[in-house]
Amino acid sequence: MALQHFERKNESIRNAFLELANKQPERLQKRLNFSWSNWGFGVEKLKQSARRLRAAGIEYIELHGNHHGPDTGYDADETRRILQEHGMKVSGVCGIFSPDNDLSSNRAIHRQAAIDYIRREVEFISAVGGSYLLVVPGAVGRPARNDDMEFHRSVDTLRRVADVFAEYGVKAAIEPIRSAEVSLVHTIAEAHAYIDAVDHPGVRHINADVFHMQTEETHIGEALLHAGERLLNVHLADSNRGALGEGSMDLDTIIMALYVMGFNQEGKYVTPEPLGPGGDPYPAMYGKPDAELLDSMVLKSVSYFRSREEELLSRILR
């Protein structure tokens, strides 16, 4: 029986993975860095989140970008203390870009809010030892375009604040999001085009999210490979945007693609962000956390991911 199109692409990635194992097995020795994005934990205290993640064997955390004003968000000193107490490190910060701080907005006050927000987050990231800020070119929760100038306004606004990334040594990672949630930059190819348009050394990276990629890319593994060296972080969730292992996501092909592209190195992360279905996930930031449910979701995800990773690697390396 002839293979389906996606199966042929899967087979190509699998063959590249097997060739890597055969010719350069040393490149498979280091495991992928596993982090967790905590903004889906709602209003839970950071101390409780850190305790949960460390108990599950997770060393890195991607923090909620909650510095929406000078008097809001995590305190840097307290954050460092809590994470040090739990033996955790900050990978980066998930930027939260709503209509209130929209880089592409046709209202200057909202673009200025985005600039101010980015400055606060970059300063915080530097203070807590993180390495990146995820940047969304348009507002999440606003899928309809305001006009035909959104891309140009977004590029211009981010370029105006791009020097701050270079100043603090923090990487800007552009995140493509599905068209049901945002009005521009939906694919890895469009993220490349956006980065090229900004044309600034502080804005050079990409954050991929496999949930969004299900609807926007022709093949997730192939798109990850297309992201290339710019790929900095990968948000993970199963096909239903739930815990890993609870849907039909082809996690094996994703893992193999990441190893083929050499993603198992310092400074690059796989980061579950299971937020559940829906058009606008941002309300999850303010939800009342269900600690038992979150504990289970974290343990299921890390256990399933590591088991699939070991299944792939042990089978070919033994």
- CATH topology group: TIM Barrel
Shape: globular
Beta-strand segment tally = 7
- CATH architectural grouping: Alpha-Beta Barrel
Percent helix range: 40-55%
CATH superfamily: Divalent-metal-dependent TIM barrel enzymes
Instruction: Output the helix-strand order.
Output: HHEHEHEHHEHEHHEHEH
Instruction: Return the average pLDDT rounded to an integer.
Output: 94
CATH class: Alpha Beta
Largest sheet: 7 strands, parallel
User: What structural category arises from helix and sheet content?
Assistant: alpha/beta
Q: Which residues form runs of ≥5 with pLDDT under 50?
A: none
Output the strand order for the largest sheet: 1-2-3-4-5-6-7
Total domain modules: 1
Organism: Cohnella soli
GO molecular function: isomerase activity
Domain Xylose isomerase-like TIM barrel: 51-263
Keywords: Isomerase
